[in-house]
Amino acid sequence: MGKVSWPSNAKLDEMKKLVAEIAGRCTEDVRVVVSPYRICPLGAHVDHQGGTVSAMTINKGILLGFVPSGDSQVILHSGQFEGEVRFSVDKILRPIHIVKASDNINESGASKLQQECTWGNYAQGALYALQSRGNVLTQGIIGFVSGSEDLDSSGLSSSAAVGVAYLLAFESANNLDVSPAENIEYDRLIENEYLGLKNGILDQSAILLSSYGCLTCMNCKTKEHKLVRLPEFQNLETEKPKAYRILLAFSGLKQALTSNPGYNRRVAECQEAARLLLHATGNEAIEPLLSNVEPAAYETHKSKLEPTLARRAEHYFSENVRVAKGLDAWASGQLEDFGKLISASGLSSIQNYECGCEPLIQLYEILVRAPGVYGARFSGAGFRGCCIGFVDADSANEAASFVRNEYQKLQPKLASQINSKNAVLICDPGDCAHVI
């Protein structure tokens, strides 16, 4: 499959030249943060209940070229957004969601704040997060940030990638030695405290902990993680594992559809299911999370749940089983079995967790029957963005063409809104976020 293919040397040189021109510095002075997007093959919608998830990064994401400014000033430009962002690292920041107390989270998980916030808020959020834990910053940055083309609002966690990028840039400029675990917490502060968004830690954990070619497994209750590699050889006859690639198939939906019950409601339903199950076992004093319910207790008492809560609990417990089986399949190089589990996860997300919308469900169904595809599911909740698929490397081009053509037949209007060259992207695994 080769080594990490992103960013290319040409792309790095382009970024360095651009920042050098903006800052009036030499290209040798320019540093570049590489902050990849992530996918989660297994572990859908269980992180908020303390479940176990799997993730890996891909060779697409955020590049932030920068130089230390030489003073406290931060000056930023963007490849996607207009205008210039300026602020000082000695400015004491207050959380936006407190300043704008009228902003409310709606049922879809979207907020007025998300829609209105300027693109510089993540940079200021990174400063806020570092300040709030006692870090003193004296050095600003002059930088240019750019994301992979047409991949915003795609369900690949571009917001976490941006937050991590700014954290790493500020830390590099100020010679701060910060661990991945600390940066996971700092990015949580950006999202939860500064912006007031109800996000977990899955996205930034994947971006900061992943390693090229590995599947990152994380227990969201204990925060423990491990990296699981594909076997180098399949058996004693030195048969190599099958090569795979990753398909990103885009729906054309940029805004979440809200005709189904919202994301926050589902979280509440999982908690209510946990509360009832814990009460049935005499453990009502324990925090109502499904991870606090023993699987045996679930099997014994699940008949006491009304149908909606029963479906949510069934998704949680069956998904945790799929994650465990998927890690074993990955570790043994059984990509066909791994893929079947991914597709089963996608089906449970539709039937039991009841997320997704018609275009994304159609896209999922197309991917599942595309030639050479091992398995597929939504990337995210399926209200907008894309579906991911693992595909045999030799069949990737054929599968991409099949998905593109079939989706065009079912959703011609949405398909027409997608840049044709990016309608289905063929990607490879990435590495963790780092500074070059």
UniProtKB/TrEMBL annotation:
List the InterPro entries: GHMP_kinase_C_dom, GHMP_kinase_C_sf, GHMP_kinase_N_dom, Mevalonate/galactokinase, Ribosomal_Su5_D2-typ_SF, Ribsml_uS5_D2-typ_fold_subgr
Q: Name one Pfam family in it.
A: GHMP_kinases_C
Protein name as it appears in the record = Galacturonokinase
The terms under GO molecular function for this entry are: ATP binding; kinase activity; metal ion binding; phosphotransferase activity, alcohol group as acceptor
Q: Which GO terms describe its biological process?
A: galactose metabolic process
The reply to whether Transcription figures as a keyword in the UniProt entry is: no
Every copy of the GHMP kinase N-terminal domain together lies at 121-209
Superkingdom, taxonomy of origin: Eukaryota
Q: What keywords were assigned to this record?
A: ATP-binding, Carbohydrate metabolism, Kinase, Magnesium, Metal-binding, Nucleotide-binding, Transferase
Keyword ATP-binding belongs to the record: yes
Q: PANTHER family given for it? A: GALACTURONOKINASE, MEVALONATE KINASE/GALACTOKINASE
**Domain GHMP kinase C-terminal positions:** 332-408
Question: Which GO CC annotations does the UniProt entry carry?
Answer: cytosol
